[in-house]
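Thread: "does anyone have the structure for this chain?"

Original post by V.I.:
We have the sequence but no experimental structure in hand. Need at least a predicted one for the grant figures.
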Amino acid sequence: QVQVVESGGGLVQTGGSLRVSCAASGDTICISAMGWYRQAPGKERELVAVISSSGSTYYPNSVKDRFAISRDNAKNIVYLQMNSLKPEDTAVYYCNVSVCGGYDYWGQGTQVTVSS
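Reply from O.Q.:
Generated one for you, tokens below.
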């Protein structure tokens, strides 16, 4: 089992920045990808950023050049730096941890609200 805990959400004005963090603990011997998803009210959960164990990253066009994902493999922590935030970035942000064998673990989510 892997426990996943997010932190760092909050309220920010349009154009501002925010960093959210996610720490994985427990059976973390074989973590592969770590990523961030978000879900806004009435919408489906969508991928925001993902980073592999080797450091390769992927972003959808909606956040590319504004968001940056990074990870500390020694501490099993993944960060999401969000810049130039827009009201449409408002959502609950969830951390996802993928481990060997194809299992996924999710955090409880952290609210990010961008005011206009």
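V.I.: this helps a lot. The CA atoms of residues 82 and 88 lie 13 Å apart.
O.Q.: and DSSP finds no helices and eleven strands in the chain.
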